């Protein structure tokens, strides 16, 4: 057992409480802790039976397999109407939804035996009022109840069953954990992997319901609606952003597999249609068909199990692997979903932090949007469940994510409800933005500086390497600026500096200049950005700015300047 598991178990056995809440970061080993407690209580004849309540069908199987290794046979196929189980089993595994269907049957079973109830990811007891009521009715007679969670609690007015609450400084009740083991502690103990976040921005263009064509750079200060639309444009399988980021992620995976041969990658998609499209793109990039896991497939659990024990490169999923699923070889991830709540983000990143050997690092590729970068910077924040706190904003750290997830599973865009308007993605391109590691930001013009980082590095080594590359990049930039200045002096004039750089850099500079002028025109006239871009396209011709060539962009820049001169005159 790990040190935290031993300490938590010692505390549990010394106090012997009826209810115990353990909050431990994903990947820390909550399952091992709970089964060790169960084995000890069985050995001491404190309990006779074990009941595990898990969020999903797949996690029931995962618990049964882990319990079998601990010498506790558990039936994962039990249902409330089944009645008796084989005498070979010491317990059962059910889902929260299954408990809500027939809590009375489980209550009768709980009363018949001295039962330890393990509530895995107990915050799910608040997913629906009937779930919480069902859990309370079914397991109120239990001899012992052990609640586990690894992610921030939801915020709603209903207390989670069997969790203790106490007023905070503001008088609002908050959950009280009996033992807490956060990501920061786990990282220091080498229990979890450090995470390297690689953020990608790029130029996006889309058409709104009103017919306005808008061009913006992902990650730049935008309204909430425009940020949502820019993100959805980036994640559109038909654009250029996704193929570029998937190709970069596959390069990173190749580098990691030089040191960790069975390392795998996971793409988390918003909906099933996108997942299938991303899988097709990955197959074209790698020449190998990825594993595709859809939440409503009967074979989903078998696919995850097969991927876990194989050495194939990629898996693409919608929600099946967002929480609890243990695939320790996952080392590279692409966060390609519009679901951006803190709870979902924490669950998703939790799939990559499970440590096997010292030095392994997780690499997560994500869109460069403020809300996701904020979550990435707050990996070590520990939170409690707050009661009676109204949700006024979906960016709220305690926002309930259930509606967004339900939309995703229904195949809808998760941000449709947020921006209140349909739109059409016109074009996108991806550019490397920066790296986040241990709360610090590192930037470089050379994407490969970070894609080629070795797959085995201790956190301090990673930090030193990033700092060195940052310094090298700064020196190289100064050298380029000095060389350019010398050339200008030798030529006796001021050449067009845009023409001196590569094509993609030239286009990026021109787009930034155009967007800046359009923004200035908006502040001067009040005309919307999209209307201005549409007018420029009408007068100068050509496609949207995100896919226009340099000549077309220069023509639009000149035209905006002509407008400014005429208006001034």
Structure description:
The chain is α/β, with parallel strands linked by helices. The protein has helices at residues 3-15, 30-43, 57-69, 96-101, 103-112, 129-139, 183-188, 224-234, 241-257, 272-286, 300-309, 342-349, 370-377, 402-409, 416-419, 448-451, 459-491, 503-525, 529-540, 550-568; strands spanning 19-24, 49-54, 74-75, 91-95, 115-119, 144-149, 165-167, 173-175, 179-181, 195-208, 213-218, 264-269, 291-293, 314-317, 330-336, 362-367, 423-428, 431-437, 440-442. Strands 10, 11, 12, 13, 14, 15, 16, 17, 18 and 19 form a ten-stranded mixed β-sheet that branches. Strands 3-4-2-5-6-1-9 form a seven-stranded parallel β-sheet, sandwiched between helices. α5 (103-112) runs parallel beside α6. The longest helix has 33 residues, at 459-491. The protein starts with a helix and ends with a helix. 45% of the residues are buried. Mean pLDDT is 82; it is low at 383-421 and 494-501.
Task: Report a brief summary of the structure.
The chain has 569 residues and is α/β, with parallel strands linked by helices. Helix content is 43%, strand content 18%.
């Amino acid at each position: 057992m790990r040190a935290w598991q031993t300490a938590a178990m010692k505390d549990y056995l010394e106090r012997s409480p009826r209810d115990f809440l353990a909050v431990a970061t994903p990947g820390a080993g909550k399952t091992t802790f709970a089964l060790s407690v169960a084995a000890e209580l069985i050995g001491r004849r404190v309990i006779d039976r074990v009941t595990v309540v898990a969020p999903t069908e797949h996690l029931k199987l995962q618990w049964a397999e882990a319990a079998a290794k601990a010498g506790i046979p558990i039936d994962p196929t039990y249902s409330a109407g089944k009645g008796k189980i084989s005498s070979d089993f010491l317990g059962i595994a059910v889902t929260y939804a299954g408990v809500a269907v027939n809590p009375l049957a489980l209550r009768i079973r709980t009363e018949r035996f001295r039962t330890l109830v393990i509530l895995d990811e107990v915050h799910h007891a608040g997913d629906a009022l009937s779930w919480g009521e069902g859990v309370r009715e079914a397991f109120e007679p239990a001899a012992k109840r052990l609640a586990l969670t690894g992610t921030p609690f939801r915020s709603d007015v209903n207390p989670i069953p069997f969790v203790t609450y106490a007023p905070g400084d503001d008088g609002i009740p908050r959950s009280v954990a009996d033992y807490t083991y956060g990501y920061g502690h786990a990282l220091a103990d080498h229990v979890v992997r450090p995470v390297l976040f690689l953020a990608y921005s790029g130029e996006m263009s889309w058409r709104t319901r009103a017919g306005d064509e808008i061009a913006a750079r992902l990650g730049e200060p935008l309204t909430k609606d425009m940020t949502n639309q820019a993100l959805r444009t980036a994640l559109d399988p038909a654009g250029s952003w996704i193929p570029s980021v998937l190709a970069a992620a596959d390069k990173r995976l190749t580098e990691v597999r030089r040191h960790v041969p069975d390392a795998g990658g996971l793409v988390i998609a918003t909906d099933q249609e996108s997942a299938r499209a991303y899988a097709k793109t990955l197959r074209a990039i790698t020449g190998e068909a990825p594993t595709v896991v859809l939440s409503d497939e009967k074979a989903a659990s078998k696919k995850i199990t097969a991927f876990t024990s194989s050495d194939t490169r990629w898996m693409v999923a919608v929600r099946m692997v967002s929480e609890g699923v243990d695939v320790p070889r996952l080392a590279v991830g692409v966060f390609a979903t519009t679901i951006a709540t803190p709870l979902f983000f924490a669950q998703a990143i939790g799939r990559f932090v499970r440590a096997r050997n010292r030095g392994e690092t997780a690499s997560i590729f994500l869109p460069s949007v403020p809300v996701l970068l904020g979550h990435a910077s707050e990996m070590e924040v520990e939170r409690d469940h707050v009661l009676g706190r109204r949700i006024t904003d979906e960016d709220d750290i305690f926002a309930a994510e259930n509606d967004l997830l339900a939309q995703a599973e229904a195949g809808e865009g998760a941000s449709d409800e947020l921006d209140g308007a349909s739109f059409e993605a016109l074009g996108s391109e991806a550019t490397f933005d920066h790296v986040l590691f241990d709360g610090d930001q590192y930037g470089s013009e050379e994407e490969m500086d970070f894609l080629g980082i070795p797959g085995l590095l201790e956190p301090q080594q990673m930090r030193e390497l990033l700092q060195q590359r940052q310094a090298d990049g700064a020196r190289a930039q100064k050298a380029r600026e000095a060389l350019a200045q010398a050339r200008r002096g030798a030529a006796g004039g001021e050449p067009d500096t845009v023409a001196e750089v590569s094509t993609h850099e030239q286009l990026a500079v021109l787009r930034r200049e155009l967007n800046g002028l359009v923004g200035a025109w908006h502040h001067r006239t009040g005309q919307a950005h999209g209307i201005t871009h549409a007018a420029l396209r009408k007068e100068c011709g050509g496609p949207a700015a995100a896919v226009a060539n340099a000549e077309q962009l220069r023509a639009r820049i000149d035209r905006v300047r002509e407008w400014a001169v005429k208006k001034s005159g």
